[in-house]
Amino acid sequence: MRPAWHDLFVRRGALLEGHFLLSSGRHSPAYVQCAKVLELPTDCETLGRALSSRAPRNAVSRVIAPPMGGILIGYEVARALGVPFLFPERDASGALAFRRGFALEPEERVLVVEDVVTTGLTTGEVLQLVRAKGAFPVGLMALVDRSEDHSVDDLDVQALLRLRIPTYPPDQCPLCATGASLTKPGSRTVVSGSRP
Ligand code: ZN
Predict the structure, then answer these.
(1) What is the per-residue pLDDT for 43?
(2) In the chain, N or C: fewer CB atoms in 10 Å?
(3) Separation between Cα atoms, residue 70 and residue 96, nearest integer Å
(4) Is residue 99 left, alpha or beta, with left meaning phi > 0 and alpha meaning psi from -120 to 50?
(5) pLDDT per residue as tens digits for the range 97-144
(6) Cα(185) to centroid of ligand 1, in Å?
(7) What CATH class does 41-162 carry?
(8) Phi, psi of 63 (to 5 degrees)
(9) For residue 176, how far is its CA from the centre of ligand 1 (angstroms)?
(10) What is the residue extent of each domain of the chain?
């Protein structure tokens, strides 16, 4: 059975199925664009509430999300939990840092929210930043978990969807072997069967 949220992602065009050319040059049978499932504020609110229901009760004093992808859903999770929200930005050296007067107090209990966790690299940077301020990451949530081991730095990823999407070099792509037409995500060409 498909997970409960799968259909919404497909309906909103956030989860495309077909034959895709990735920016890496590899081919894939599916493509995730979380921004599409957040396009309607009412959807974003619903998704934020759904994630917040999995947050450790009364244990979160603040929500943090990395830019850009995490900001909308992080804000809605913070709204549902009734706590403040903040986001870091990359400084001139490329490191994540707080600007705009945002700050974390030592010992704050921080929930990290992402749109997608894939390699966990950005998430790891956020966790590092939180810890560097003397605050505690108490949870990690994402709309979509594409990670290998469903955790980052020993924090489990709580996600609405867990997806394992294979990618192939073009010369070993089973979709190419069937003659399926190839689509570049973001282009106007839609692979047949990818949208309801
Ligand atoms: Zn292919």
Answers:
(1) 97
(2) N
(3) 14
(4) beta
(5) 999 999 999 999 999 999 999 888 999 999 999 999 999 999 999 999
(6) 13
(7) alpha beta
(8) -110, 140
(9) 4
(10) 41-162
Contact 160, 5 (CB under 8 A): yes
pLDDT digits (tens, 9 = 90+) for 10-58: 999 999 999 999 888 999 999 999 999 999 999 999 999 999 999 987 8
Number of residues written out for the chain:
196
Using 50, 70 and 90 to split pLDDT, how confident is the model at 193? Answer: very low
In Å, how far from its chain's centre is CA 141?
Answer: 8
Tokens of 29: 């049978």
Q: Which two tokens stand for residue 190?
A: 């839609």
DSSP string covering 54-97 = TSPTT--SEEE--TTTTHHHHHHHHHHHT--EE--EE-TTS-EE
CA of 22 to the centre of ligand 1 (A): 10
In this prediction the pTM is 0.87
* Ligand 1 centroid from CA 8, angstroms: 26
